[in-house]
Amino acid sequence: MGTSDAPGGGCSTGIGLWHLRWMHGCLRVPGPPNLGLSTQFLHVPQSSSVRHAAHALHGCVLDDGFARGAGGADGPLAPIFVVNIQMPLTAPPTFGEMPDGPCASTVMYFGCTAAAQQEAKGDNPSAAIALMREYCAKAPKPGESRKGNECCYTFKVIAKLENIDTLPLPASLKRFNGKPALINKSGLLHAGEGYLEMDVGIDKFTFLAKRGLYSVLDSLKTFDIHAGFVLQGNSDAELPEQIIGSARFPCVDYNVTHGMF
Fold this sequence. Notes:
This protein is 15% helix and 30% strand. It is of the alpha+beta class. The protein has one domain. Strand 8 and strand 9 (195-201) form a beta hairpin. The two termini are 18 Å apart.
């Protein structure tokens, strides 16, 4: 696993079906094959809208050579899988929905590996590959979107603070470290030509979750965050689950504008 730190930025890693290839505000670092993704990071600073939906469509131009270079462009799996974590930068209201306001996105681009595509073409893929193959087959058509709770499998985010023992966080937050978060109503799966994108809107989280995250917003630049993304298996035949892709990004400062590396 390769890592590289950058002040106010982060690093990329790969341990799943896809490789993490790049992220705005982070340094590009080669990583070993995942369940099948190569990765890139993109940290998008403040905007006037709470949601950056379909970032891959509106925020940047995807290069099909990104997945093709890893040999994973041709097959039943999405050549590129984008995860877009959308963070509101204002305090959540006690009641009602989050109003429109400034936010930031952390966008991760994962390129499918040749090994994952090859296995997905076979008759007896592993449970995790079979899950992703069905997820891609039942995804929206290009140009369309679907809520997370309307997808055939539940998308999960597992975030772990690697330096949690050094952080002055309340026990109410520490107990969630490394625990999976189910992305249902807060998720929006968007399909484009040659990619799928899961937008995770923190503005759609429960009030307590939003309040907890907002309370540590200024401290995020001291966090060493390691995140993994999983599809939830619903039966014994769909287990064990496997990380689709992962990323590690320490010291992300939402108040600093970063370039894309």
